[in-house]
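ugh ok so i messed up the first submission bc i forgot one of the chains. this is the corrected input, ALL of the components this time, i swear. 730 residues overall. if the numbers dont match what u have on ur side tell me asap before i send this to the collaborators (the ones from the other lab, u know who)
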Amino acid sequence: MVHWLKRITSTLLALAVTFSTGAVYAQGTIKVMYTDPLSGPFAQVGDQNLQQFKYIIDYINGRGGALGRKFELVSFDNKSQPSEALLALKAATDQNIPVIMQCSGSNIAAALIEGVDKHNERNPTNRIVYVNCGAVATELTNEKCSFWHFRMDAHVGMKAETMVRALPKDVTKVYLLNQDYLFGQSVQRDMKAFLTKLRPDVKVVGDELIPLGKVKDFSPYVTKIKASGAQALITGNWGPDMTLLIKAGMDSGLDIRYYTMYAHLGGGATAIGPAGNGKVRSVMAFHENIAVETGKTDTEGWTRQFRAQHDFDFYAAGFRTIFEFLQAAMNKAGSADPLKFAQALEGLTITDMLGYQVTMRKPDHQILSEYFVGVFTKGVKYDSEKTGLGWKTETTVLPKDLDQPNTCNMKRPTS
Amino acid sequence: MEVLLVSLLNGLVYGMLLFMLASGLTLIFSMMGVLNFAHASMYMLGAYFAFSVSRVIGFWPALVVAPVLCGGLGALIEMYALRRVHKNGHIAELLFTVGLAFIIEKSVQMAWGLLPVAYRVPAVLDRPLFHVYGSNFHAYRGFMLLVSAVMFGLIWLLLTRTRIGLVIQAALTHPDMVGALGHNVPRVFTIVFAGGSALAGLAGVIGGNYLVTEPSMAVTMGPIVFVVVVFGGLGSLAGCFIASLIMGLVQTFAVVLDVSFADLLAHLGLKVTSATPLAEFLTIPLPRVGALLPYLMLILVLLLKPRGLMGTRDT
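and heres the new structure output, hopefully the right one now
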């Protein structure tokens, strides 16, 4: 009896090994490893990203995928920890996956850049490319840049410049309020730099750093902002720090313009509510009404279909750009080999789903794409989070306007 | 002057919200000696129940129904779970409440989703009550003050003027003696646990639409409530009240007072430049560390007066 059991087990094991090593020689799918927090306080971020990725990959595969093969997403929960993200990297390289993607947390991104560099140097036959879908600290494509890292979202410096360009001429007093960590301090620094450069007439009447995620009652801050006489509040806050700040401002009747970086993401529209009509602006890569404004009906239909199938609004146009870049680069290189398609990807220009020409800059692997400042208002076709109000474009900044200088000095592999 | 008055009001409102949340925990902690990690979860459940109930029958009935639901849930937890775990000691009870907090958080995420829900202030209260130097004092904040004051008054009356209240008071400081005198201490425990949970639920109903109602609200409110309870002292509701107000005012005034150690030293004639040792630490403005002050005060009180401000029992 035991003898038979051993026979069967070893047969099954042999079969399992055969099929799992198939990945090395696969003419099957092109796998992409995606790691982000899928549990814990930021689970919502990872989860919503995942759902949008799945929708996008279905679309791309429907258009032939790359090299005649389909893309397949493999997800790995990194629990917002750099150490877990490195485990994701290991899991990816163990399966010979050519691409790893990550969006949330510049500290995690920095760890991944270093990890990928080391791995690729030691394992030239099993390399991997790191696609950064949202970690925006400016340093990652400057001091910390790497050939194997491609950033697919505008960094803090670019977002700050977009915001400064959107400030109307009659606003001369601004109040800065940010979260007290790497990203928030980066916003603070870049905002002041761009204000000095592009709008020297504007005076910063208040400059505040708040502890990350700790403040529940923003009314004292609102009191200070009012006392300073500021006409605009500029903040990079996200999550509860953003929603509570806006709520406190609305409740106390603060007569001010809000310029944010993340009010268009989850929870923002609900927090602003109908009272915020015309008051809150956000810097964003996409909102569902842009396609309506520019008349791109196919894109509008595509995001509308997503809306119908999910309980949140589509915001990740940049993710579709990622896969369109991967598709174009792999087809151009004729291979899914990381070195070959990375070389094809840098310097590549494609047209994104909103009709703009986006470029992957060669010197620092930073994407150059269009950016928008939207205002939260009534009377738009697609509302956000069922509030009846939605985003309307107020300012469009073209890719060439965001072509900022960089200090990257990357080592290029030759083979 | 304007900033002082407005900040006083802000601090008062925030302090009263803390009190609503902490009063239930003080009663539970004082009585049962166990730190109930799931107390803030009851706060969260109160907010979510009120959100769902108010969509069906309106906010005002929800104001009564949601705390009752939380109280009922608390009673069930106490009778069928906590009582059994009680035999195994304080650590076991503590771990049980920690596990309970996780389960409640996950259940809320599964039932209502990961995004914040649109639990709004009722329209009749969504307006300015009066103007203070140009900013509005929102009517809902006045309502919060009213509810917490009434609640404090009712609890005080219950504890000092009713028989069950006297038994509870005695059990707060001498539970073994009360049991020896023949009172049904387990039933008192259940009543207190249910009552505490209902209070937390009420705080959730009131606070959930003032702040944001989302699955992480228990985790963010939890720590500050523990600080208030320990700072105020075990066994004393008055101590809890004073501690809540102190914490509320400290956190509020820390934000508006833009001073640092360097400014203090400048008054004494010592100038702090970038070359001074510890210059970075000395020039930190108070608003930047304001949120840490309650925890600093907690450490101080545990070092200097471990029983808390007005505590009558050891932890």
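quick check: Chain B has a mean pLDDT of 86. that seems consistent at least. The beta strands of chain B are 128-132, 135-138.
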